[in-house]
Amino acid sequence: MAEIEHYTLNFGPQHPAAHGVLRMILEMDGETIERADPHIGLLHRATEKLAEIKPYNQSIGYMDRLDYVSMMCNEHAYVLAIEKLLGIKPPKRAQYIRVMFAEVTRILNHLMWLGAHGLDVGAMTMFLYCFRDREPLMDAYEAVSGARMHATYFRPGGVYRDLPDTMPQYEKSPWRNEKKLKELNANRQGSLLDFLEDYCEQFESSIDEYEALLTENRIWKQRLVGIGVVSPERAFQLGLTGPMLRGSGVAWDLRKMQPYDIYAEVDFDVPVGRNGDCYDRYLVRVEELRQSTKIIRQCIHWLRKNEGPVIIDDHKITPPKRADVKNDMESLIHHFKHFTEGYCVPEGEAYASVEHPKGEFGIYLVSDGANKPYRLKIRAPGFAHLSAMDEMSKGHMLADVVAIIGTMDIVFGEIDR
Amino acid sequence: MSEMLIKSLEGHFKDQIKSLKFYCGEVTIEISPADVIEVFKALRDKDEFQFEQLIDLCGIDYLKYGEDEWETEEATGSGFARGREVEEKARELNSPRFAVVYHLLSVTLNQRLRVRVFVNQEDMQIPSVIDIWNGADWFEREAFDLFGILFEGHPDLRRILTDYGFIGHPFRKDFPVIGELEMRFDEEKQQCVYEPVSIEERILVPRVIRRDVEGPKS
């Protein structure tokens, strides 16, 4: 019989389980991984370099396209960094809106992760369920910003505009009868807040549904329990953050420990795992879905009762009202300067980080006093996580690599930047 | 919180710290490349620091720091033309050009620290911190790839983000945004060919520095 010694296997870059364009060179001994060498950069767009040649506000849209399943969280870090350097603080209502949408985004991200992770290890139904529940949140995005995904909604000093009073409705078409149309539009009769409240109501039972399908599922547990175990010490060494760190039993959440915006005022718990394996990280993320729903509810409650401005009134930084531009010379000049030259940010450097659904997402901004960043560094959580791939997959079977990629919640938009 | 950190930093690294800044609620220190290993080891292990995580490591090129493309002392009659030419300006010699910036996080003490190290201009070398924080691996490869900074002691310093066979370090300030090569499929040769870029670089919004803008007080 021929002796088969170590061989290398090329995985990706076009592989459905690679979650994008990940290429991995796997050195295998039979079906066991000896060494994994991920090759990244196939989606490198040099976002950081492009930001250096644009006024600050024009790069907000690029942030959406980093981690394209948690768009507003990326924007959040970017505007926080600019606000830090400018020394401004947005109005309270804007902060609540931002937190509410950051949590909506967290649900969007975790649903995408849950669906894709399920599909990777063979749970087809999860994928369909998760995408069904993502749809209303995308509609909320659309109602507030006009875009389903790449919102560009957050601005230094607040948010682009206030929440809408009406929701867009489904329209008549030859494929929908009157009854169906009424059903579809039933929860869209009120404002965006009513719509989101209704969503939270039914979403909690959806989470129970997911859990009924997966948590005690024999196959699911066989694929995840004891796979990709990371001890807390190693997690620190490897730079893991977010659910990857909490899954290993470290209760570290930036929303609690270094609160930004109004996270200090809302009540929520930080779920923590025990064993640091894929299954614990699954449990942590599912619990985060519940906690996010809880935060959204509190924000809705507050936003209903408190009206107010959603962006600061300093027209050196934010554009003036459209009506003023028509009537007032000063506003016209501000408007023109804002959209051509932009605003200058005082010389200095700042690092702002948010608890992104995937981990710590940070923006390191260096300004030399110009209207464009001198250097922008994006600290993407997925980059550090994927670099731990070699260590996490060593000694596991080939099929487990797919589960480990899944548990890392890899999105190439942010890793390759 | 930060005062405590600043005090212990000053106490411990009296000789190593070249400058210490506190701005926007963040502490930044600057050290020289020779002290990197010693200082970072202490920052990780000493009780009053306990920076068990290296959150971020990145390179910076200070080549064009503080240079603008359009002077704005007074209002101009002509305004600025669209599509300005890219100008080369002479730079002060001897001022250090490349720096590596480390962002550290202590989960135990809930504190952050930024450390800046200017790289030796002659050999572009700096000691690798991969043995102190294993997570530095890819971050150092990235800084090497994009800036050409060499991390001494890194076991596997390959390019990471750019294409296989890429030449140059794209995030250096003297590397054009449009790149140097473009690729297309050649019908005759029936293969991909690389050629010098055919497009011209231009500036749509000039870089303007206004000194009258004030930042936060501390």
TrEMBL record, chain A:
Gene Ontology molecular-function annotations: NAD binding; NADH dehydrogenase (quinone) (non-electrogenic) activity; quinone binding
Membrane topology: Peripheral membrane protein
Sorted UniProt keywords: Cell membrane, Membrane, NAD, Oxidoreductase, Quinone, Translocase, Transport, Ubiquinone
Chief localisation class: membrane
Compartment(s): Cell membrane
Pfam families with a match to the protein in the record: Complex1_49kDa (PF00346)
Keyword Zinc-finger: no
Any GO CC annotation of this UniProt entry: plasma membrane
Name of the top EC class for this enzyme: translocase
Gene3D superfamilies: Cytochrome-c3 Hydrogenase, chain B
Domain NADH-quinone oxidoreductase subunit D: 120-417
EC nos: 7.1.1.-
Reactions this protein catalyses: a quinone + NADH + 5 H(+)(in) = a quinol + NAD(+) + 4 H(+)(out)
Quaternary organization: NDH-1 is composed of 14 different subunits. Subunits NuoB, C, D, E, F, and G constitute the peripheral sector of the complex.
PANTHER family named among the record's database cross-references: NADH DEHYDROGENASE [UBIQUINONE] IRON-SULFUR PROTEIN 2, MITOCHONDRIAL, NADH-UBIQUINONE OXIDOREDUCTASE 49 KDA SUBUNIT
Family: Belongs to the complex I 49 kDa subunit family.
Known role: NDH-1 shuttles electrons from NADH, via FMN and iron-sulfur (Fe-S) centers, to quinones in the respiratory chain. The immediate electron acceptor for the enzyme in this species is believed to be ubiquinone. Couples the redox reaction to proton translocation (for every two electrons transferred, four hydrogen ions are translocated across the cytoplasmic membrane), and thus conserves the redox energy in a proton gradient.
Protein name per its UniProtKB record: NADH-quinone oxidoreductase subunit D
UniProtKB/TrEMBL annotation, chain B:
Keyword Membrane: yes
Gene: nuoC
Membrane topology note: Peripheral membrane protein
Subunit composition and interactions: NDH-1 is composed of 14 different subunits. Subunits NuoB, C, D, E, F, and G constitute the peripheral sector of the complex.
GO MF annotation: an example: NADH dehydrogenase (quinone) (non-electrogenic) activity
Function summary: NDH-1 shuttles electrons from NADH, via FMN and iron-sulfur (Fe-S) centers, to quinones in the respiratory chain. The immediate electron acceptor for the enzyme in this species is believed to be ubiquinone. Couples the redox reaction to proton translocation (for every two electrons transferred, four hydrogen ions are translocated across the cytoplasmic membrane), and thus conserves the redox energy in a proton gradient.
Species this protein is from: Aliikangiella marina
Subcellular location(s) of the protein: Cell membrane
Protein name: NADH-quinone oxidoreductase subunit C
Domain of life assignment: Bacteria
NCBIfam families: PRK06074.1-1 (NF004730)
Pfam families registered for this protein in UniProt: Complex1_30kDa (PF00329)
Similarity comment: family membership: Belongs to the complex I 30 kDa subunit family.
